Each structure stands twice: as structure tokens, then as C-alpha cells.
Amino acid sequence: MKQAKSNVKRPGVNSKRLPAVSGAPGEVRVISGKWRGRKLAVLNAEGLRPTTDRVKETLFNWLMHDINGAVVLDCFAGSGSLAIEALSRYAAGATLVERDSALARHLKQNLQKLSCDNATVVNQDCLSLLSAPATQQYSLVFIDPPFRKGLAIPCCQALQQHGWLTDNALIYLETEKELALTEIPAGWRLLKENIAGQLAYRLYQRG
User: Fold this and answer.
1) Residue 66 sits in a domain of what CATH number?
2) Among the residues of 5-149, which ranges form H helices?
3) Does 38 reside within a domain?
4) Could you read off the pLDDT of 36-67 as tens digits, one per residue?
């Protein structure tokens, strides 16, 4: 990857898609739990937009009573920030799905640095994976795809249609704020929602 100006994300700055820059790492910080305060390097890549600390803190306040023991699926893992935060707060385990092979390798390295033995990184296209019959069911799912690529709604539909969710699964969805959500699966109940700059983030529960 070419050298370019640093695009390190700063906590509290509105989320925007970063330009494609290889080999120029930023950082994500674990907010709470057993790895509280740990900082992990993140490779900048096209479409990668780590969730800001402000949004992440709000999300995990929403989830505070549901994290311990959760089985987590991170659908567009990228930096791994959401899944790692959940694992730090004693989720039972996590599967991190990332299509980009360099990012997937880096995720594995960060999990090794944390001595994390209850997470798996899957280097595969998420929609391709989810279009097959489920091999496991998840009680907490993070969906935070690259913006404006038409990935969010098909991901939600595939999770529902192919049996990847437990009966009362919680689903976190982070998208561009203008995205229409008319095709969210029937029976998903909106629990929480908020807007931060250019993004909207929502928590659903499968009914």
C-alpha cells in the first residue's frame, strides 16, 4: 500500500469512511472490561471506519445487561473493535468475519496479543457466508458495513432467512443516516436508535 497522510481516527470525531491507505495504522481502544485501556493498531483500508469511542460507549451502555455470556458475530469486522469490546466484557465467544485478507491477518495478530482464545477470524465475504445454512446461532450480532455499498439490508435478511440468530438475538446496525430501512426483517423490534454525524446506529431484537 502507498504511503499517505495519516488518517488516524480520534475518539469523538464523527465517523467517515477513510480513504484507502495501506500500512498506515491507526488505533482503537478497549473501553472497559478485562482489557480496559488496551490500544490496538488498526490498518487503514478502503471502507474501514472504526466505530468512534463515543458511539461505542453508547452502544455498550445499551448492551450492559446482555454482553456477559453472549455468542457474538461481527459481520464486517474491519478493526474488530466491536467484537473485541464484547469479549473484553465477558462475551462467551466471537466470530469475526472479514473479507480483506490483510485485515483478517491483522485481526488474528491483535487477538493473539490479547491472549484471546475464544474468538475466530473468518476470512470470507460476509454475504457469501450468511447465504448458506447456519452452522451456529448467535445471540448478539454487529453489522457495520462500508457505507453506501448496499450491504446492510441483505446482511440482515440473510441472518434471518438462513437461521443464524437465536430466538431473542440482539442485532446492532450502523449505517449511513439516509439509508431507508423498509426491508428490515419482519419481527425485528427496534429497541434503541441514535444519530451521530453522518451515521445512524440502532439496536434491534429478533422477536
Assistant:
1) 3.40.50.150
2) 53-62, 81-88, 101-113, 126-130
3) no
4) 999 999 887 665 767 888 999 999 999 999 99
pLDDT in tens, 162-197: 999 999 999 999 999 999 999 999 999 999 999 998
160 touches 185 (CB < 8 A): yes
CA 160 from chain center: how many Å? 18
Backbone angles phi, psi at 166, to 5 degrees: -70, 170
Give the structural domain span for 176.
50-206
Handedness of CA 162, 59, 100, 84 (dihedral sign): negative
Dihedral sign computed on CA atoms, order 33, 42, 171, 147: positive
Number of structural domains (the chain) is 1
Residue 17 inside a domain? The answer is no
Identify whether 40 is part of a domain.
no
Rounded CA gap, 8 and 18, in Å? 9
